[in-house]
Amino acid sequence: MSQALQAQLPVLQVLIPLLAAPLCIILRRRSLVLPFATGVCWLTFLVSVFLLGDVLEAGVISYEMGGWAAPWGIEYRVDALAAFVLLFVSGIAALVLTYAPRSLTDEIPASRHYLFCTLYLLCVTGLLGIAITGDLFNVFVFLEVSALSSYALIALGGRRQALPAAFQYLVMGTIGATFILIGIGLMYQMTGTLNMADMAERLPAVEGVRTALVAFGFLTVGIALKMALFPLHVWLPNAYSYAPSVVSAFIAATATKVSVYILLRFMFSVFGLEFSFEQLGLGRALMPLALAGIFVASTVAIFQRNVKRMLAYSSVAQIGYMVLGISFATATGLTGGIVHLFNHALIKGGLFMAMGCVMLQLHSVDLDEMAGIGRAMPWTMAAWALGGLGLIGVPATAGFISKWYLIQAALEQNSLVVAVLLLLSSLLALVYVWRVVEMAFFHEPSARAREAREAPLAMLVPTWVLLGATVFFGIYTRYSAGVAEQAAEAVLRGLP
Amino acid sequence: MSGLVPLHLALVIPLAGAVLIALFGRWPNVREAVTLATGVALFWFVTSLLPHVLAGATPGVLLVRLLPGGLSLVLRLEPLGMLFALVASGLWIVTSLYSIGYMRGHGEAHQTRFYVCFAVSICAAMGVALAGNLLTLFLFYEVLTLSTYPLVSHHGTRKAMKGARTYLGILVTTSVAFLLLAVAWTWVLAGTLDFRVGGILAGRAEEGILLILLALFVFGTGKAALMPVHRWLPAAMVAPTPVSALLHAVAVVKAGVFTIMKVVIYIFGLDLLTATGISVWLMYAAGFTVIAGSLVAMAQDNLKRRLAYSTVSQLSYIVLGAALANTWGVVGGSMHIAMHAFGKITLFFCAGAIYVAAHKTEVSDMRGLGRAMPITMAAFLIGALSVIGVPPLGGSWSKWYLALGALDAGQILFVAVLMVSSLLNIAYLVPIPIRAFFSKPADGSEPPRFREAPAFCVAALSFTALGCIVLFFLADDVYRLLIPLGGG
Hints:
heterodimer; A: two-stranded antiparallel sheet; 80% helix; B: mainly alpha; 19 helices; 3% strand
């Protein structure tokens, strides 16, 4: 790769999907637009692979947009954490779109496929942009790009409930985004800059001022809404369960994770560890919410009859684990939180993809309808079971790695209670996962399940790639936990 | 030199067997041949490891470096694991023979799934036996639980599902809530999870914390069935009898007590336990389970349930041996892993044979059955006497050493416990074959004519019954294998 191209990688990461999105409208033909968008996603993924390589080798990359120097122009800034997020967001985006065609044909009218691709690419653009930018206002812009496109994506869902679900998400999401905007505005007012690194330098001088505290409050609540932190999670279950299968898989795997990334960026990189955690005690606020979220959402998940909805509640619980890791504000805790971003993205993306396969063949994801489906669709449900084991945190799955770090972090701080609660919560996961496994494999087939066939290979292979990866990253952790450790250290050091 | 031993073959062989069994599922004869061939190959391999251990070597294999912080999956051979691996792999062959007779004689469904899961379970048991650190042990412990679940729920009836759910629920709950916590805590305290002679926890924490940690380990190992976490074992009796025989008399339950033994010897270290006395409560807990398990067993009319409670009681002999924390106790307890395995598997084989040939499950229906099934009932008597601990049968040695251990530790009470338990064992085991031979059927009908179980079953149970006798004379070899355990 030429030097010149390599230097432009950060901007290409966002530019490629952004420019491709309107092209989808021009292409319009279904047979053209899906392969095109898929190709674009894989290209984006390739860029992120190179970026991660560069970052691990040479350290932080700073890119000046349009050649304007940093505090005045927009800076793109790729450190280990950002590169890590870019990698899994673009990777999952590409994988999900590869899997998508059959499922889309079944769930969305063919005349709208080009719209789907446009929205999907815009959503990818937004999520990648959030991760890569070093500019506060730019974060807000990309947040809105990804959010607006995801509202529309959810509304594409076949059932009528998709519309109120999307609307509910829109209202809650907009409130969250507005809070974030207010927070950013107040901080701009205090410091006169929007560049993160610059602001991190100027903030200490004005930290005591009430405006900064108010900004901190607005930002915390706004981000908590976006990442569906209990009790601000109400928009999530409907959105995930009524969206088209492909959209559920992509958004569940990436959207909330990127919001957690925003939390990390603001609280550690901009405000700084000392201000957020030692002065304001953010950890003490987040930890109870995280634990409550884990327990309440896991318990609610146990009682769901719709498996997609159950997975959605499980997502709320899993966000709790990530936030719990962050709330320790130690290297081990942060590593646990960050590695769980990644691990859970794989697990939940894969699980929703498996549910997409079931939806295609069974036209239902109702638990009772799924009785005995394991016999008709052994590969799909075996993949599901594998992902389920990851959710529980069985050793040799990615979920175990995350939990191991989190327990370590709890024990390091001598909070035995938290460690015990963490372990007990995996038992709740065991219950909700095992209900499905038992129903699928050990019950007599329902009438519908008798007629069902195994999902097409084009869908099975991507599903297995993702869920196989959860086992891979449960055993070889150099590129998950290893990178997460580096990212955690970088985050704790703060911006230079 | 010790790095050259390919220990992972012990995992690869049964796993490859499982794959082949699945592939040949359509041809039952080929499938069963694969099972037997895998069993023989595994046993041969495990036997070939014996010289290393007897020479005092502890070869190890690094499977994978799990976390950047230095946490790995490691296999390492040592005497206790050697014994467990030998027993489990050897009895797997016998059980496979028995399964062929039982499953066919009984016309069971899903036989391919059955044999595949069986092979995976054995793979997990090998992993437990050869685990070189706590994390590896925990990993295979969980694999063992999950891979045996389909075996327990095999019949797919409501009752089987309920039993399997209890099985899974208790085992996973205890292991995740307590055992994993204990493992993580040990890592934080000691900075390593390796099994080392003399333990890794000495001087790392206060007595109070060590006490809690030991409790977490003991109750986290649900498979050891120490009361009150024993309920899964009777619940698992809904499984087909070969499963009860190998897994719930040998592999699964022994994996439990094996874990406790390993933790006591290599994590805490005998010296630490003796110096601090933190395992004294465990003696009482184990002693209670020994007596209570036997008492409950007396009240059971269903033969398999009676045997299950007998197992609960016998497992605590081994826990007691560990809790005594002296050479005799540890050797006696470890030896009991092998001795009880042979005795109890014989009893389960007999229970299954009676079920297949005479369709009887209740003890009260078995009067007068000795005429019809003389070989089975004779084997039952031998197995029972070995479990009770009567010479010249293997079980007498392990009880002897346990009693020595109790005396050595100055705990006369537990010598009494062992004696009382033996009496109770006599009371609930011996009458079954005696009445079978010397009583008439309860309903007054004529004793049935000679009708033994399928030849495969009879061969298997005769073999293990003979094994009980042979072990009596091999006790010295077992002793020599195990004596390094107390020497640390």
